[in-house]
Structures are given as structure tokens and as C-alpha cells.
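Problem 12. The chain below contains 209 residues. Write out its predicted structure in C-alpha cell notation.
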Amino acid sequence: MRVGPNMIYQHDPASEADEAFEPGRMDHLVTGNHGRLLDGRRTPVRIRRVRPEVGMFQVEILAFEDQGAVWEMAFEDVARFQFRRGAKHLSVDRVSEYQAIAERLGRWVQLSADPVARSHTEELIRAEQDRVKVWLSGRVHVPGRIRQHLILADRRGDPDLKGILHEYLEMAGLVDIEVAFARAYASNPHAGEVVRGHELVLARLGLVP
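Solution.
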């Protein structure tokens, strides 16, 4: 296990040296190719699917906490990986096609945060906070229990408090959204559209650009 400032991560001390791999390039985008993420622990992956119609490819995580997770990555993100020497390669024509797709779709979008929208959103948040305080008072009977739990070193969470949170989210119709976001954010906030979609909504609500 490797301990970070806020998280504990698994890693493989017997991981192969980088010399057994080569830097990720567009020609490595072949279904079935095995590689590794260029993170500190060299997380092993396999290309599961390539989607030229949207300029994305899917990688399946093969080890550690996220084993079995599937990330959606943009074509240009292939540079964030390394692939085993001897992996399959695309033809020159197909690489040119993928590069053109990446150039066409790989654009930055900046959404400003409208102050009027922010003011309206903050009013709604304050109203919900007041309502939830009343709702929680009938379920959390020990004053300071939530605050006390937040400073504990136990990373597993309080089962009762988790149940109360799930009840609230279910009542609000947000359980599925929360599960999808939490899974995506904890696994890789830069993979796929779930986290990016939340960022766009936050901007439209006026909270942040």
C-alpha cells in the first residue's frame, strides 16, 4: 500500500521497468493492446474499445482499487499511457484519420459564471440547507456526531450516517447521479463525460466558470 496525504493507494512493488514499454502514440489505439497509465504506480490497462465517431477510446483498469473500471479517454490522451513493446499498431492511413478526428473534436470550451444565476442558485441552496437541518434533527440525535466523525482517522465511514445520506439522496431522486459521479471522480475525474458534465452544470448554475 502507498499512503498519500488523503488517500491510501495500492501499488505493485514488483512492477516492470519502463524499458519494457514505449510511449503511447495514436498508432497504439488498437483494441486489445495492453499498456500502463503514466502514474506513479504504473496502473496496468487494456484498450477495450476504440470509438472514432466521437474521438474516444476505452481502457479497462486491470489492477488495484479500480480493477474492472472502464475509462473513456480522448484520442489525444493516449500520450498519458505507455504500451508494451511488440503491441499491435495502426496503419499510417488510420493514424492520419485519428489525428484529424482529434484535431476536429479536441476543442476547449469556456463557460462564464453569470452573477444573476449564481444569486438565484445560492438562494435555493440556503433554502435547502434550512430544510435539511430540520430533516437531520429528527435522525441525528447526538449533537456534534457528524462533526466528530469528520475528524476520525477511520476511512470506512459511519454506517448510520451513510444510511442517512442515502435516504436523503433517495428522497431527492439523486442516488443514481451521486453513485455515478462518486465512482467516476474517485476512479479518474479526467476520464469520460460524467465529471465534465457536472462542471458544465456548475457553470450554468453560476457557481464557477
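Discussion. Residues 68 and 149 are 31 Å apart (CA to CA). Students who got a different answer should revisit the alignment rule from Section 12.3.
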